């Protein structure tokens, strides 16, 4: 048995009473390296180099490419639940496994662009020009810093106006879908994009609707706090509406519990409650509350580059594995969520 403190996932899944597990905010000994590699130099550069070596040496394990490009929308109209953190770090984890990954920043706040270190100051060609002016997506996509195969379409503050400007445009709900389809079809042979993540703003307006129409899958981060499930029925109802009228292929790929703090009973209770309601729709991996995850964007880096040895990096690495394996289970998840939505509507 491992001598490490249990991870949040180990604690809550399968459901057990609360344990007192360590989290990164307290000065505990660094967790053992999951790949069994000692970290000789405690510097960001050394860590980044180590991550790169793991990947190059195949120790992180190259993932097989999915049969077709997977397009995921990361959505929850509640603010600050971990949408951007999940988008950026999942995308980075997959790219570090050798996949080609595009992040589309659909939030005028531009947080995903910041976190990936891509330019998004006023005047930068961005998702706004793609949606409103019909600029090809290929003209705005930039390589993310430090990770080969990771790309981002940035958002500038202009996007704040798009919500209103889109209203009067032709095909206003499917402008992102068209742009993305053209972009994906235009990739050179052998350089297909394997995953696309769309980071949504905290609203269910036209920007988020565009994301739902462009995607096949929806990933819903839920923060482990008291009002966790509030607003979820509305989100699921919107997904159902989109499925009925605009995108019959849309599926829920799952719910990710974020900012889990095993020291608080509340986190444990909320995680249990969410699992009780959403069952198999919830990913087994739970993202812990981690100060490293919160710090990483200020360095313009995903956690896998900023602190690859942290619990947050481990969690997103595990989530990447789970997401990859979950495709087949997506239908089951969607059924569970639909049943919950139906029960909610009947109540
Ligand atoms: P918004 O609705 O504003 O777009 P969001 O849903 O994208 O927010 P994030 O920006 O990812 O949420 O996270 C909100 C804040 O919480 C950020 O400051 C982020 O750094 C921090 N945060 C996210 N996940 C974690 C975590 N697991 N541990 C600690 N802090 C986190
Ligand atoms: Mg965000």
CATH class: Alpha Beta
- Determine the CATH topology: Rossmann fold
Rg computed from alpha carbons, rounded to a whole number of angstroms:
19 Å
User: CATH superfamily name?
Assistant: P-loop containing nucleotide triphosphate hydrolases
Mean pLDDT score, rounded? 84
Share of residues in helices: 40-55%
Number of strands: 8
- Poorly predicted runs of 5 or more residues: 1-42
Helix count from the secondary structure assignment: 14
What strand line-up does the widest sheet have?
3-4-2-5-1-6-7-8
Overall number of structural domains:
1
Spatial shape = globular
Q: Sheet bearing the most strands, described?
A: 8 strands, mixed
* Class from helix and strand fractions: alpha/beta
Enumerate the distinct ligands. adenosine-5'-triphosphate, magnesium ion
What share of residues are in beta strands?
5-15%
List the helices and strands and how they pair.
Layout: H1 8-12, H2 44-56, E1 70-74, H3 83-96, E2 101-105, H4 111-115, H5 127-133, E3 142-143, E4 150-153, H6 159-165, H7 175-185, E5 195-199, H8 206-214, E6 217-223, H9 232-245, E7 251-260, H10 265-278, E8 282-288, H11 291-295, H12 303-306, H13 311-325, H14 330-346
Parallel strand pairs: 1-5, 1-6, 2-4, 2-5, 6-7, 7-8
Antiparallel strand pairs: 3-4
Helix pairs in contact: 3-13, 7-8, 9-14
The structure holds adenosine-5'-triphosphate (ATP) and magnesium ion.
Features:
40% helix, disordered N terminus, binds magnesium ion, 347 residues, 13% strand, Rossmann fold, binds adenosine-5'-triphosphate, globular, eight-stranded mixed beta sheet, alpha/beta
